[in-house]
Every structure is written in structure tokens, then in C-alpha cells.
From TrEMBL, chain A:
<feature type="transmembrane region" description="Helical">
    <location>
        <begin position="20"/>
        <end position="40"/>
    </location>
</feature>
<keyword id="KW-1133">Transmembrane helix</keyword>
<feature type="transmembrane region" description="Helical">
    <location>
        <begin position="176"/>
        <end position="196"/>
    </location>
</feature>
<feature type="transmembrane region" description="Helical">
    <location>
        <begin position="99"/>
        <end position="120"/>
    </location>
</feature>
<feature type="transmembrane region" description="Helical">
    <location>
        <begin position="403"/>
        <end position="426"/>
    </location>
</feature>
<feature type="transmembrane region" description="Helical">
    <location>
        <begin position="145"/>
        <end position="164"/>
    </location>
</feature>
<keyword id="KW-0472">Membrane</keyword>
<feature type="transmembrane region" description="Helical">
    <location>
        <begin position="371"/>
        <end position="391"/>
    </location>
</feature>
<feature type="transmembrane region" description="Helical">
    <location>
        <begin position="67"/>
        <end position="87"/>
    </location>
</feature>
<feature type="transmembrane region" description="Helical">
    <location>
        <begin position="311"/>
        <end position="333"/>
    </location>
</feature>
<keyword id="KW-0812">Transmembrane</keyword>
<feature type="transmembrane region" description="Helical">
    <location>
        <begin position="279"/>
        <end position="299"/>
    </location>
</feature>
<protein>
    <recommendedName>
        <fullName>Fenitrothion hydrolase</fullName>
    </recommendedName>
</protein>
Length: 428, 94
């Protein structure tokens, strides 16, 4: 991975040992066919249901809570904006870790644990509201138009961010990051000024990503009231905006490309070729996404026509499991480092949060075996949950016709994804 | 600087030639505590950087240098050149 924090002398995870790759593949196959044959015969997750939590709802919906949460988020982004615009162009600037680790990687556990908190606190939305307050949007879209837009712009912006993270040369320098930050900000707030606040949920790659992951959280709003729900039920009954399948496939494709860049095959191709690296990177990123998305579209189409977006829910646990396995050490190490550097955003020797003198606890590297097992468990568990969601959704899609055989395309797709993911983590 | 008398010394031969590197991103498996030597020959001015050990080895055009090191920490460590930025080997220390 072209990690922007390269210069800090980063140490990386050992690849997954081959025995664990085989074990994972075997488990994936076993669980998949086990589920096919033994799991429920009638769809279980067709309606939203769960434990109603009116007290929590009142607390979360209270204007004070919302204002406070938004203010905190805005302050955090503002603090890092200081580092971006006025800090030193060195690898010790916390903004790099903030963007590439806290935001991009952190949003997965945050959304899984706390649901749609990203949408609630997104500073882009807060700022869009401020900008829209005087006169409202210039060209507001109708409900029908918003339905057509869905989250499709998110595919482009997610790929854009991935390109910044994985291909853009100089992404560990402030000038480059500043340009991208401006584009992101203007795109989101400018677009909101024209079309309305809802543009943020279509455009902001972090929010689009977070909302997909949040469909696997145990918190779901049913008729306006927060409920504690079975995550599988949540994933099966969450709204499916237009572009869901494309976005989910993009998320998987991005992580797959990231892993692929660590393989000897890729490094060999890129380094011995006369073609510029940026071209290789762009083709690789887009190519991997098209490969992942194309395979999914075929499997979904083979299951039932018109179900591509609704079946995409089954990919979310696989995205989560794979992201967790791939980024765990990064989050633990560079996450800590960013917290340490955050005390001194301008590189002037400050220690605002008292963390500047701390060292990163690299204890996680002392336990490569347990880490490898945790990574394996994350992938296998993600696979299992994906299979269960695909099973339930397929039962609805197939509607009693060819119930066993009809599920095979999705099943084979997911086994394929999981095995490919394991092989990539083995990093040949 | 001479290589240690221990029997398990791995020599990693690195060539920086014609703007490319050899090896070209290969994996090198080591056990924690092993000694190894980076045997670098270069036809250009460059720096070989060993990540995780924070070690930068400057080489000038036409120079041949041997750098002994000890694999005292576990993990995956990239060894790369800087002019141009190319991945030479990946040390996998268990």
C-alpha cells in the first residue's frame, strides 16, 4: 500500500500464513454449503422489527445532543484543517493520519457500533445547512429526481478518494492534500447549495461508505423510533437507494486493489514496465472494481432479475470482515500515532491534549499468531453473515422457485471473494 | 565491518542498475534474531531505506557496500530505493 505515512518507518503485518488461508477457504466452503442446506426455508427478515428504545431516541433526537455532537465533529475537522492549511509539510502532520486512518478506516467500526452517527455529525452537512439557511437550494430536486440519483455520485467520489490514497503521487504532502480537500468541500457544499442538503448523502464518500456499513449495525430507526435489532435483519430491511450495488462493489474493489498492490506479481509488473506508475495504478484500481462489480452483477442477475441492489446487502459483511483484517494493525498503530500528533497540529511544539510526548504502543506486533487468527476470524465471520443475508434475500427473490439451485450463483461468488481475499492477505 | 561468525547469516544482494532494482519486490523470510547483510552495488547515487528499522543507506554511483543488520523485530518491512522510488525486497521477520 502506498501509505502516506511511509516516511515514519512503518512496520507492517506479516502476511497470513498459508495454513490459515487453506483453513479459511475450507471454512468458507463448509459454512456456505451448510447454510444452503440447513438454514431456514422461508425468508425470516422481510419486516423491520426489534426492541423499541424510546428513551434513547428522545436523548439522541434532543436538539442539545445533536448540536453538541455536530459541534464536536466540526471542531475536530476544524482542528485538522488547521494542520492541513497552517501546519508543517512533514510526515508528523496529524492530518495525514486523520484522513487516511481515522476517517477512512475508523468509519467502519464507528458505523458498525453506533449506526448512522456519521450522517448525524457530518460537518459537511452542518456547513451545508448554514449555507442554505438564508435562501434554500438554487435548483432543488424533486423526490423522484433524488430517487434516480440515489448514491450513484458516491461511486465516483469513493473511487476518487481511493485514487488519492493508493495512486496519487505525493499524497503524503500538504499541497496535494489541500487540493483534494478543496475539491471535496466545494463539491459537497457547492452541490448542496444547488440541489439541497440531501446532496451530501449522495456525494460525500465517507458518508456513503458509513451508511452502507451502518446497515449492519444493531441500531435501526423504525417509524422514527430507534430500535435494537438483529444486524442481519437490519441489513435485509434497510432502504436500498439507487447505486447501492455499485457502491458496495466499489468498496470491495478498493480494498482488493489495495491488497493486490502488495503482491510480488504487481510490484514486478509495475516496476519493470516503462508505463508510468500512475497509469498502472489507475487501471488497476478501476479494473479491480469493475472485476468485483461485474462478477457480482452476473451472480445477482443469475439469481433473479432486478435484484442487484437488494442483494448487495450480502456484500457488506464481507467488506467489513476484509477491511477489519486488512487494516487492523494500521488502525491500532497509526491511529495511536495520529492521536499523539494531534496535540501539535502546527508543528510548533504544542501539547494541547497532553499526548505529544507519548509513544506508540507497538505491542500488537509481538503477537503475530493471534493477529493472524483474528484476521482469519473476521474474514470467515464476514463471509458467514454475508451468506446468511444472501440466503434470506435470495429466498425472497426466488419466491419458491428453484430454491437450492437458485442460490448457487451468489454462494459461489461469495466463496470466490473470500478465497481471493484470503489469498491476497497471504500476499504472494 | 565483518559478517558475524554465526552460521545463519543471510546475504541479500541488491543491485541498483539502469534506473531499476534487483531483486524486484521479492520476499525474504527471516526469523527473529537472525543476522543478515544488505550487499548493495549501485550505478547511481541513491539511498536504500529499510522501513521499520528507520535505516537509510546512502550509496554513490559505482559504490559497493555491505551493511550487516540484525532482525531484532517481527513484522513486514519494506526495503526500497529513493531515486527512483522502487520496492527492492520485503523482509518478513517472524
Amino acid at each position: 500500500m502506498i501509505l502516506p505515512l511511509h516516511g515514519l518507518g512503518s512496520r507492517q503485518d506479516l502476511p497470513l500464513p498459508f495454513e490459515l488461508v487453506l483453513l479459511g477457504a475450507a471454512l468458507a466452503l463448509l459454512l456456505s454449503f451448510g447454510a444452503l442446506v440447513l438454514a431456514w426455508r422461508r425468508p425470516r427478515f422481510t419486516a423491520q422489527a426489534g426492541l423499541a428504545l424510546p428513551g434513547l431516541t428522545r436523548m439522541v433526537d434532543a436538539p442539545v445532543t445533536r448540536a453538541l455532537a455536530r459541534l464536536l465533529a466540526l471542531a475536530l475537522y476544524g482542528w485538522m484543517a488547521l494542520a492541513l492549511w497552517f501546519g508543517q509539510d512533514r510526515v508528523t502532520n496529524p492530518v495525514f493520519g486523520f484522513v487516511f486512518v481515522w476517517l477512512w478506516v475508523g468509519l467502519v467500526p464507528v458505523s458498525l457500533l453506533f449506526g448512522s452517527i456519521w450522517r448525524l455529525t457530518n460537518p459537511l452537512r452542518t456547513l451545508a445547512r448554514l449555507v442554505l439557511a438564508p435562501r434554500g437550494p438554487l435548483r432543488p430536486l424533486s423526490e423522484a429526481a433524488w430517487q434516480r440519483v440515489g448514491i450513484t455520485p458516491g461511486v465516483v467520489t469513493l473511487l476518487g478518494f481511493a485514487w488519492l490514497e493508493l495512486v496519487q503521487p505525493g499524497n503524503n504532502t500538504l499541497p496535494v492534500l489541500r487540493w483534494w480537500a478543496v475539491a471535496w468541500f466545494v463539491g459537497a457544499v457547492g452541490g448542496s447549495l444547488i440541489f439541497g442538503e440531501r446532496w451530501v448523502s449522495a456525494f460525500d464518500p465517507f458518508e456513503v461508505f458509513a451508511e452502507r456499513i451502518a446497515t449492519l449495525s444493531p441500531w435501526q430507526r423504525v417509524d422514527g423510533v430507534l430500535h435494537l435489532v438483529n444486524p442481519l435483519r437490519h441489513a435485509c430491511t434497510a432502504p436500498v437507494p439507487r447505486g447501492t450495488a455499485a457502491v458496495t462493489a466499489t468498496l470491495l474493489g478498493i480494498t482488493a486493489y489495495d491488497s493486490f498492490t502488495n503482491t510480488t506479481v504487481w510490484v514486478g509488473w509495475v516496476q519493470t514496465s516503462t508505463l508510468p506508475r500512475t497509469l498502472w495504478g489507475t487501471l488497476g484500481l478501476v479494473g479491480m472494481t469493475v472485476l468485483v462489480g461485474g462478477a457480482f452483477a452476473l451472480a445477482a442477475r443469475a439469481t433473479a432479475a432486478g435484484w442487484t441492489n437488494r442483494l448487495a446487502a450480502s456484500l457488506v459483511p464481507i467488506v467489513v470482515g476484509y477491511n477489519f483484517a486488512h487494516y487492523l494493525s494500521l488502525l491500532v498503530l497509526e491511529g495511536q500515532r495520529t492521536a499523539i500528533l494531534a496535540s501539535d497540529p502546527l508543528g510548533l511544539g504544542w501539547n494541547v491534549f497532553g499526548t505529544a510526548e507519548l509513544g506508540v504502543n507497538t505491542g500488537i506486533f509481538d503477537y503475530p499468531q493471534p493477529v493472524a487468527i483474528i484476521q482469519l476470524c473476521a474474514i470467515v465471520l464476514g463471509h458467514l453473515l454475508g451468506v446468511l443475508i444472501a440466503h434470506d434475500r435470495s429466498l425472497v427473490a426466488l419466491n419458491g422457485r428453484r430454491v437450492i439451485v437458485g442460490q448457487l450463483p451468489m454462494l459461489m461468488l461469495m466463496v470466490g471473494y473470500t478465497v481471493a481475499g484470503l489469498v491476497l492477505l497471504f500476499s504472494p | 565491518m565483518s559478517a558475524s561468525a554465526s552460521p545463519a547469516v543471510t546475504t541479500i544482494e541488491i543491485q541498483l542498475k539502469d534506473g531499476k532494482v534487483s531483486p524486484n519486490g521479492d520476499r525474504v523470510d527471516l526469523n527473529q534474531g537472525d543476522q543478515f547483510v544488505l550487499d548493495i552495488t549501485s550505478d547511481r547515487d541513491d539511498e536504500v531505506h529499510v522501513h521499520g528499522f528507520d535505516k537509510g543507506i546512502e550509496v554513490s554511483a559505482g559504490q559497493h557496500v555491505r551493511v550487516p543488520m540484525t532482525a531484532d523485530r517481527t513484522g513486514r518491512f519494506e526495503v526500497e530505493s529513493h531515486h527512483p522510488e522502487l520496492l527492492i525486497v520485503v523482509l518478513q521477520i517472524r
